[in-house]
Write a structure and sequence with these properties.
This protein has 10 helices and 23 strands. It is of the alpha/beta class and 419 residues long.
Length: 419
């Protein structure tokens, strides 16, 4: 089994305005140290993983990491090195830089090498501007790094806390985000599937669950898709049965948008010998679309090659195209599949599979989902529910569409959001 090099970055940073005057993001490394301890106590030692703790000068006086720029250089070194596989980005980076306003409202240079301010000169005015972000560059350049980030709020509702943490996750392509509120003490672990785990005020418990989930999910396998072109396939090209079912679910609110992007996916498998060496051809929903807007339902044409490679015409397909493939290959009596993020009704008999250790889009998630499929409606429908996530529903393009819609309505709360 491949070894993982795990890096934890913690502590706060400063921005030097002048000698003896600096902006700071107060953080003293307690969380980073705890994560390091939990990793040392975990089963990663059996795998031979190595853990590296990087603390800033604010958390460890001997450290050479002090400013945002120091953290940025560390991140760049980790990105350039193929060995790092997990990064816990727990450092509190100074959100602002500042300059003192001098004579004639001219901004003066900042830095420890500039003249010291004198209190005898009275009050001063400082202009602040946002500092450059560092987090986003990690997964932008290294999709193979499993990134755990942290979002702090102060006195907000759980829903606001969820939105703030999920916004950070989606913007920076994080694999997990721990959102914590410094006033309510509430913690939640957020995933790309828009689910939350570890909802507790117990800091030890949530950090332990965070480490366990990071170790489990970082072992998931992914196959990257090569995009051949960005011109999508018209929604009208999909089988009528798929269009009718998806459009009904859209109308009932099953496909909700977060930051103008819809979660969930759908697809149709075609098995046609004209495709030669292509193993299977999919029409699949596209990534980063809003299915509620005109053109949002247009599709990507996805090719699964005999060597395991995946290619797409029409832009990037939904991350769930791998699950679509696994489901329809294993249950080849069906050729259509839809997935949305809604809870099931209490009386529903649809079986539930765990999602906690599986990131949507991984081979592992597809296999886990496939194992739970159960047949309904005289074997005309297949369905499985993913915990804290949503159902996958399989049906036939030449089957009874109204029966599929009736099954969905009877089993799932389409107006609600799984979480």
């Amino acid at each position: 089994m491949n070894k993982k090099e795990i890096h934890i970055i913690g502590g706060g940073t400063v921005f030097h305005v002048r000698p003896h005057l600096a902006l700071s993001a107060p953080a003293y490394g307690a969380t980073a140290r705890k994560i390091s301890e939990l990793l040392s106590d975990s089963h990663h030692e059996v795998l031979g993983d190595s853990v590296h703790l990087h603390l800033t000068k604010m958390a460890q006086s001997s450290s050479r990491l002090e400013t945002n720029e120091d953290i940025a250089r560390l991140v760049d070194r980790l990105i350039a090195d193929p060995k790092p596989k997990i990064i816990f980005m727990n450092a509190a980076l100074c959100d602002y830089q500042g300059q003192i306003v001098g004579a004639c409202d001219v901004l003066t240079p900042a830095g420890k090498d500039q003249p010291r301010l004198k209190t005898s000169e009275g009050k001063q005015t400082m202009t602040l501007w946002p500092a450059d972000k560092v987090l986003g560059r990690i997964r932008k350049h290294r999709k193979d790094i499993f990134l755990v980030a942290f979002k702090t709020t102060a006195g907000v509702t759980p829903d606001e806390q969820f939105k703030a943490g999920m916004g950070l996750l989606k913007k920076n392509s994080c694999n997990l985000v721990l959102a914590n509120d410094v006033q309510t003490r509430n913690n939640m672990i957020l995933t790309p599937e828009l689910a939350s785990y570890g909802n507790t005020t117990n800091r030890h418990d949530v950090l332990k669950e965070l480490v366990d989930m990071a170790l489990a999910r970082s072992s998931n396998e992914f196959v990257r898709t090569k995009v051949l072109g960005n011109e999508p396939v018209s929604w009208s090209k999909a089988p009528k049965a798929l269009r009718d079912v998806v459009e009904h679910c859209v109308a009932q609110g099953a496909y909700k948008a977060f930051n103008d992007t819809t979660v969930g996916h759908f697809g149709h498998m075609s098995k046609d010998p004209i495709w030669g060496n292509y193993l299977d051809v999919f029409l699949s929903s596209r990534r980063k679309q809003n299915y509620n807007k005109p053109g949002g339902l247009d599709l990507a044409q996805v090719y699964f090659l005999e060597d395991g490679a995946v290619q797409s015409q029409g832009g990037k397909p939904s991350a769930g195209v791998r699950s679509q493939f696994e489901l329809l290959k294993s249950h080849n009596e069906f050729d259509c599949v839809i997935h949305f993020h809604c809870p099931k009704k209490s009386e529903s008999k649809v079986p539930v599979r765990p999602q906690r250790n599986f990131e949507c889009g991984s081979l592992n998630c597809g296999r886990n989902t496939t194992k739970g499929v159960q047949l309904f409606a005289d074997d005309q429908i297949g369905a499985v529910m993913l915990d804290k996530h949503g159902p996958n529903i399989l049906f036939k393009s030449d089957g009874d569409v109204q029966e599929v819609i009736r099954f969905i309505e009877e089993n799932f709360e389409l107006s609600e959001q799984s979480r």
